[in-house]
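Subject: design request, 203 residues
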């Protein structure tokens, strides 16, 4: 059950992270300009929310590292996932409620050369949202739930190296201490940090 919880938590971080990263490259807002101001514009997720792409990359890195870190970092990563999910959900929800001028003003300025919130607002006839803000909101909620799952179950996860340590111990119990070390024995010693040529710890 705990092993499933860890796998579920890692996947529930990686999958939303990938969804958010993809969403950052897709069109979020379609802007229709008045009169001869220019053609209609499209605004990508990364332009609508500047932190979208960096946060999605951070989430992916966090998810990849989560399964191999110790207990303390599990709690840290769980808290970061929760905060990141809440932050992204809030930003996506604000866009869904009605895209703020800040999400598309830079695109209008780039297309027309006109600056200033009032002037840019006067150029815009209408805005329309695509499905990607909603997809990002869903992914952010899943990410936040994954953070809670990590915080609740992290202490009970098995250590990543326990199986390896058990295998090494079992093999050592079968080895005759009086016989010479072979190449495989020496490699195992080095992998554990012991220098077989000195009888000490490799540095």
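Subject: RE: design request

Done. Sequence follows.
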């Amino acid at each position: 059950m705990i092993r499933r919880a860890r796998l579920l938590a890692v996947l529930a971080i990686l999958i939303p992270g990938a969804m958010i990263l993809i969403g950052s490259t897709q069109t979020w807002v379609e802007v229709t300009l008045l009169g001869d101001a220019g053609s209609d514009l499209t605004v990508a997720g990364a332009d609508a929310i500047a932190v979208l792409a960096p946060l999605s990359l951070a989430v992916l890195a966090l998810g990849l590292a989560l399964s191999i870190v110790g207990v303390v970092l599990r709690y840290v990563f769980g808290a970061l996932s929760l905060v990141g999910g809440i932050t992204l959900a809030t930003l996506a929800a604000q866009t869904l409620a009605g895209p703020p001028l800040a999400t598309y003003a830079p695109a209008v300025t780039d297309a027309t050369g006109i600056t200033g919130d009032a002037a840019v607002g006067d150029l815009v006839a209408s805005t329309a949202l695509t499905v990607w803000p909603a997809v990002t909101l869903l992914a952010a909620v899943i990410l936040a739930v994954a953070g809670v799952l990590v915080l609740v179950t992290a202490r009970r996860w098995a250590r990543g190296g326990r199986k390896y340590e058990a295998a090494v111990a079992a093999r050592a119990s079968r080895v005759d201490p009086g016989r010479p070390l072979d190449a495989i024995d020496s490699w195992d010693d080095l992998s554990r940090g012991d220098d077989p040529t000195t009888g000490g710890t490799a540095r």
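Residues 161-168 have pLDDT under 50 and may be disordered.
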